[in-house]
Amino acid sequence: MKKLLAILILILTLQTPSQADDIRDFQIEGMSIGDSLLDFVSEEKINKSLIKPYPGDDTLLPSEFNNLSFFKIYDSLQITFKKNDKEFIIHSIAGIISYENNIKKCEKKKNEIVDELSELFKSAEITDEGKRIHPQDKKSIVTNVIIDIGEKDGIFADHVTVSCFDWADSSSFYDHLRIGIKTQEYDKWLFEKAYK
Predict the structure, then answer these.
(1) Residue ranges per structural domain of the chain
(2) What gap in Å lies between CA 111 and CA 90, rounded to an integer?
(3) 157-161-107 Cα angle (round to 5)
(4) Is the distance from CB of 40 to CB of 28 less than 8 angstroms?
């Protein structure tokens, strides 16, 4: 049975086993890296959930699910899996909570989550990237904290990211909190192939 880190009963009941050091122990809405997406949604829903693939490589396909009946915390989930994988094994998962025109509330929650994770994982390497311009929208701002868990392969590691997105055009996108779980393999693919 998978260990549970309810990363996000948002700090109120954040839990983890005392020795959790495997990214696959983390869950978002009950899903973990390595699970089959078919255990949660039908193949028909998965196919309807596909979003625009990454421009450089389509080895991994992104999907987005909004307000499914079993969601308890998040407004939407973004999940990637390998193209042509009949089991739809999850390679990355991110939970998103909207903070419509309330970036201050998002930042406050992000900081609470990072503080809690820092206490739980005292040996984790934590990188606060501060404010930066969003790569696809030069008018919008992202604040991002990366929590590396386990060993690194060069610059790549299994990690959790906690981010706030402050969108300049709130008519197209809402400000939101995003918590992502990513493997070293996924991170390397994203950096080296997805946008090439």
Answers:
(1) 25-196
(2) 27
(3) 155
(4) no
